Amino acid sequence: MVMSFQFPAYFTAIFIITRVMSIMKISKPLDVHHKDIRAVDLATKLSVDPSAIESASRDFGGIVKAEPEAVLHPSAPQDIAALIKFSYSSSVPFGIAAKGHGHSVRGQAMAENGVVVDMRSMANNRRNGTGIRVSIDRLYADVGGEQLWIDVLNATLEYGVAPVSWTDYLYLTVGGTLSNAGISGQTFRYGPQISNVLEMDVITGKADFLTCSPRMNSELFYAVLGGLGQFGIITRARIPLQPAPKGVKWVRLLYDDFSSFTKDQELLISKNGRKDKSALDYLEGSLLMDQGSPDNWRSSFFPHKDHPKIISLITKHGIIYCLEIVKHYDDRTKHTVDKGMKQVLQGLNYMPGFMFGKDVGYEEFLNRVRSGELKLKSQGLWDVPHPWLNLFIPKSQISDFNNGVFRGIVLERNITTGPVLVYPMNRQKWDDRMSAVIPDEEIFYTVGFLHSSGFDTWEAFEDQNKDIMRFCNKTGILVKQYLPHYSTKEEWVHHFGSKWKVFQHRKYQFDPRMLLSPGQRIFNNN
Ligand code: FAD
């Protein structure tokens, strides 16, 4: 078990000593042992600078704060392996957390009194870093775990290809989303991002540097995908690619009736073959509630002239459900895509007169959240607390959830600021050997309460989140958290359910000293 680093002084001492050695190395290179050179290298990449510590103590959630003793700025995977080896073989091991882009909301990428590995440092080191390498013949990209998905998109588009499964927001790292699942409107058809990985390089908690795939070190491969950073640090992932579309037909449909909304969603995701040309390329859904504008920071979509009629609809019903779908097109299909979309829309039960469409470039669509982010940043509203709650709910209970939570708790409390997402996906597109936890039913919904709050008001949102979880427990809704956060071991055991034993066994196998991602508080929560 990791001791909480009683070694600020100890580590700082090592730091100073190795720096001294570094100076000695310059004057007496032949006296320096190979092992010491590695320590010297490592020490020069460790920072105890207050600004580095401060930045590693925060995340997008803005709720949890935990200070590490030091931050590693690796320039190559070997630096990470050296750090893990150092802790693994130390009599006083310390926790180590890879920090991707720090977009967790509950301190998952923090390491209190340990060392945070700032993965993004490797992106700045083009010579030693893993970078993004596109193999156009074999239709895959080898991508460093530290890379942002936006950079993967741009690099692959240069070759006219792209990955098939995305997140809504692209300024997240490959290692960060693969440690969770990586879901969006493509998931119903292509599976989450973790279902779209061919192989990975991983440094385990024993400092073993292994390549893994479904055929090679497969136990590690499946453990790491959705593994919440518990088994190893991903330094490279091989992502399959497909020819990229040119543009997308993007449609939103409004419903006042939840049952029609979900029935249509489920009908649409029933066509989900990867090669089925009549299938949609993206499907999501969200709630529109009384917030002054039908648009939110995640996307502005509705024409201004239509805002008044949408707002009066929301005022009348309290909640309006918005179904969002996309069909891709390229040069070959641009003349037939409208016909295809028309066929999709036939027989759907949205409210007449409440269908809105757009035609945008593929990259603009995938990167649709960015402009909202930049706007919020310019207003100083991006770095506010984000008491988010993300859930997976079995299809058979989504109607109870609507009645009890959307129309009950949420409307009654009336504190919602921020998007609320609700859309279904197919279980068969997930791989049960992976660590990610999802409900048992073939179709399940994701619901995301993506709250932004004031610095003094986040607790009210947290109370609402707790109320929602209590309601689900009380009424037997078999909800699973996505991007989970719990504080007790019992809660984690419950979360993993039948997967707990395997998860725990893999932890002993790949990280027996419990070094990695301590901020998840799974094995070190007391
Ligand atoms: P971090 O927060 O830095 O790390 C997350 C966890 O992964 C930590 O435990 C960390 O230790 C571990 N980790 C990081 N890098 C590695 C690595 N290389 N190897 C092993 N472990 C590692 N998620 C979705 O699925 N779909 C969405 O559409 C979506 N949209 C989002 C929009 C916004 C604005 C935000 C803030 C988050 C969104 N998320 C979404 C959630 C996001 O996928 C997770 O929070 C993800 O972990 C963030 O990636 P990151 O690079 O910031 O990871």
TrEMBL record:
Cofactor: FAD
EC number: 1.5.99.12
Flavoprotein is among the record's keywords: yes
Listed Pfam families: Cytokin-bind (PF09265), FAD_binding_4 (PF01565)
The reaction(s) this protein catalyses: N(6)-dimethylallyladenine + A + H2O = 3-methyl-2-butenal + adenine + AH2
Alphabetic keyword roster: FAD, Flavoprotein, Oxidoreductase
Residue stretches making up the FAD-binding PCMH-type domain: 64-244
GO molecular function, one term: cytokinin dehydrogenase activity
Gene3D superfamilies attached to this UniProt entry: 3.30.465.10, FAD-linked oxidases, C-terminal domain (3.40.462.10), Uridine Diphospho-n-acetylenolpyruvylglucosamine Reductase, domain 2 (3.30.43.10)
Gene Ontology biological process: cytokinin metabolic process
Family of the protein in this entry: Belongs to the oxygen-dependent FAD-linked oxidoreductase family.
Name of the protein in question: cytokinin dehydrogenase
Organism: Gossypium raimondii (Peruvian cotton)
Highest classification ranks of the organism: Eukaryota, Viridiplantae, Streptophyta, Embryophyta, Tracheophyta
